[in-house]
Amino acid sequence: MIKKELIKIKLLSEIDESDLLNFYETAYPLRYKVMYKHWKWIYRTSLFGFEPITINYDNKLVGHAGVISTNINYKNNILKGIWFVDFIILPEYRNKGLGKILTEKWMKISPYQLTFCNDQSLNIFKKFGWIENKKYYKTCNPINPLKWIPLIKSMDSKILNKINFFKFFKKINSLNKIDPFKLINNSKLLIEAFQSNNINNNYNEASILRDENWINWRLLQSPFLDKYFFFLKDRSFIVVSIYNYQNKKRLNIIYSKCENSTYEILLNRLITKWSVENNIDVIWLNTTEIESKEYIKKLYPYRYGINFACNADEINIKKLTLKNITNIQAIDSDNDIIFLNNDNTK
After folding, report:
1. CATH fold for domain 137-305
2. Local confidence band at 246 (pLDDT 50, 70, 90 cut-offs)
3. Among the four residues 56, 108, 213, 330, which has the most C-beta atoms within 10 Å?
């Protein structure tokens, strides 16, 4: 039986460091080291001063609710939004009402709330008035399908790369070659392209504000900077992360900024060509534009639905407006961070 007087909500910065490390190791065993060392970067505490909250029972840390701060631009007004991430209650303390208490406190941090979540979390958020958008997808192009066949996927990667005969049937040989720039060595080049490529968002649509402060935080200050590359054509570019996971070399398209659809299509085709030639096993792309962009269906034929949900105060912005926020990409929330935490590159 839970005793209310033993429950206490604390900011993450108020938790003893050894207690936090032990909790992260228990709750997130695959990425606890990065979370512990870089939580201020992950949750972007420098933007508004918002930080994750925790729930403690009888002086023990038993739950955690993360927030990533983000600026939302709507009708030339900047709203202080948050991504809901890393929500967890330790198993032995679940189904006791602690999750509800933590969620209620969580939602008071900011009235402009966004999340990608699993089905269980989505059902909980709906009870608090959140609404979902069912048009978000994770799409992929398996360059080397051999690595998904159970009987042989455990073989050495070098052998599988040599026998990947599928690469000879990709209809991209006529394209000019393009090599990516390693971001850690070419940050100025990316910043120049970022600054020169101005994309005006619709005044009546909500969008994530991406300025120099944002790109410095999200990419240049990232502990995963060495995993980031970008493909550049004139002033258009696509940023990708490249990592190994479960015997597969993956390329994840996390952020693109293209002058028009011509550049967007060309860069995606060039990325596919480069991936084939450099033993990438699968390319991932998050998108809401499967139906409106034919090239996505062709280059990324497999799709998986992603739960996206949001909530708003209905004063400065309506939930339905926030639901259709226009420029969310894989770089938002913690989608890319989770996979890079699991990188098993040797």
Report:
1. Aminopeptidase (3.40.630)
2. confident
3. 330
